[in-house]
Amino acid sequence: MKMINFKDAKIPAIGMGTWHMGSDRAAYAQQKATLQYGIEHGATVIDTAEQYGDGDSERLVGDVIKDFDRSQLFVISKFYPFHAERKQMQRALDASLKRLGTDYLDLYLYHWPGSTPLAEVVANMEAMQQSGKVKHWGVSNFDLSDMQDLWSVPGGQHVMANEDLYNIGSRGIDFDLLPWQREHNVPLIAYAPVDEADGRGANLTKQRALVEVAKRHAVTPFQIMLAWAIRDGQTLAIPQTSSEQHMQENIAAGDIELTTDDLQLLDQAFPKPTRHQSLDII
Predict the structure, then answer these.
(1) Fewer CB within 10 Å, N- or C-terminus of the chain?
(2) Where is the site Lowers pKa of active site Tyr (predicted)?
(3) How far apart are CA 4 and CA 159, in angstroms?
(4) Greatest CA separation for the chain
(5) Is 142 strand, coil or helix?
(6) Would the annotation count 111 as a binding residue?
């Protein structure tokens, strides 16, 4: 699988999302096995949040990673905006670490912009980093204006990454946010990279251009969507699946090299935005 540089970390370009995982006891064993399979086959980045299942996803991740060398994993979690004040953030972080069964996070994300002054949020995240419980901090669901505001506060330029919805059918951030992040060396974490919401991705995969490019590479349209999401070498995609077969396909997508002709065809079918669009969120 392709590896990408995430500031001072080198990680695989395709990791594993865990939204909607961990709460369904009937599906728990399969979900655990799928995440274990992913780690065993190179998808060593795991993205979760205290919000997901009110901590259930973190508990599932903790159950999975206890059997692996923690130093070889890159674990991401997120905190609610209403936990952005210092004491609340410390409690939220400690609770996440307990559920995950680890003494540090590789990346801790401010889940979406809230009412706490941004300078205070940054200062608190910097304090969590200095404590050793967080190696890096970042943000999620930040648009261009949010990132510009972040850049202007003390310590804001220490942000490791921004996690936003991004896929071939939802490329609003291609107009201004993504170019800004590339210019400022802020990697993107793409959630819903195959448009998992409400089955929309399944409709996208029927589009002629995706079908054609998939045939060229003898892969599925979903795999082309993933390969497209990470095409710039500065994006981490975190698809979510509870299927080992789909996990295998996700990992294999990390080795697909899209050609110039492929990209041109896909751009024609799914054109870049020509103006600023509101940030797409699910």
Answers:
(1) C
(2) 78
(3) 17
(4) 54
(5) coil
(6) yes
